[in-house]
Amino acid sequence: MLHIVACIKQVPDTKVAKINPKTNTIDRASAPAILNPYDAHAVEEAVRLKKRYGGVVSVLTMGPPPAVKAIRKCIELGADEGYMISDRAFAGADTLATSYALAKALEQIAKQRPIDLIICGKMTIDGDTGQVGPGIARRLDIPPLTGVNKVVEINKEKGYAIVHRKLEDGYEVVKSTLPCLFTVEKEINDISFAPLPNMIKAARYHPTIWTADDLENVDRKQLGLKGSPTIVSKIWTPPKPKGGEMLEGTTEEKVEQLLSIVLGKKELFQS
Prior knowledge:
alpha/beta, two-stranded antiparallel sheet, 6 helices
């Protein structure tokens, strides 16, 4: 049986989130917290693979105590177990420190039940970097397969996975050894409706929660702000585009006006 771990994150709904003009950061209090949409597809794919091949689906997240809600959402989708690492030592982590902490938690999970496959969303909507998944794979020294939009086969006995990776002009078929890590695109699946038994289980579910002290062989210098070399100097909301210029007159007059405007933009014709 497969043991699949989906790495997830609770994020602010960026459709309504605002930027704090003083701190140049996302005002997380201005928007409801949701399960990162790409991660929902990662969990959905993990559950589908479990149904296809048999096995167990675990989910892992790093965050403050309220992030338990994201794990419960994954239980609704069909995950079996949930783990969360939560500690002030993790606060302020960039993608480098986040991948380190999650990798250490995955090593801990693997001691309880060996992991065959790790699935992450392509990226999170609050960061848009797409770096954490490959960062985890690098730290665990396993192959990363990014941009996966179809899983063709998982063969645990022979130790390989075959997937389609999305490219700009098509896709490529890739075969990898197990264990490995996928980052998945949204089009890999459609999110299923949660059945009532899953919803009841989720409402009562309490995940395993670890602090930094619960993880083994952790270098605290690589956690949180201390382990984060990335510095965000400024974030701002882009200005709204100005309205277009209306051309009036006959068709011939509009053409002349348009040509005058275009020819006046000399920089468009400079190489």
